[in-house]
Amino acid sequence: MKENDHLVIRDLEINDTAHLVKWLSDPRVLEYYEGRDNPFDKEKVKEAFYGPRGDEVRCIIEYDGKAIGYVQYYPIEEEEREKYGYPVEIVYGMDQFIGEVEYWNKGIGTSVVSKVVKYLLDVMGAEKVVMDPQVRNERALRCYEKCGFKKVKLLPRIEWHEGVYEDCWLIEASKNESVEV
């Protein structure tokens, strides 16, 4: 996927291990992704990001040729769809982070999310794209709302993060509600 001359989303490669270790050992990134009490070393990255995980597609976000973040997307399995009220639809989930903090608050995350959502809806045939960000992650929620996501359901105390269960929002985007950014 290519957004413009600056932004490229490409498949994760083994050479990206060092980027993931750097990002996932930075407390500023871990505050919202995995937890500051859960830093990653090389072995943990290899286990979490390079092992088999079904139909999950793992990608690196590049900006001006520099790896700056990570995005993954995957079809939501039937059992989980039914649990959250999506019994017959084609639903994809996605997760992402900008690991190079100097690239935060520049609209890059909004461009990435918009691009991946458009791809999932237009190319992969998704009827909905869902995520479950923590309620306290206001910056991410603003980004997702700019990309057409709507809050569907509060998921109380669902994600173990830094020693407590955090509330998350189930949010969704669909073809007729997504926004081009």
UniProtKB/TrEMBL annotation:
Keywords tagged on the record: Antibiotic resistance, Transferase
KW Transferase (keyword) present: yes
Residue ranges of domain N-acetyltransferase in the record: 7-171
Biological process annotations from GO: response to antibiotic
Taxonomic superkingdom: Bacteria
GO MF annotation list: N-acyltransferase activity
UniProt keyword Transferase, yes or no: yes
Protein name per its UniProtKB record: 2-aminoglycoside phosphotransferase
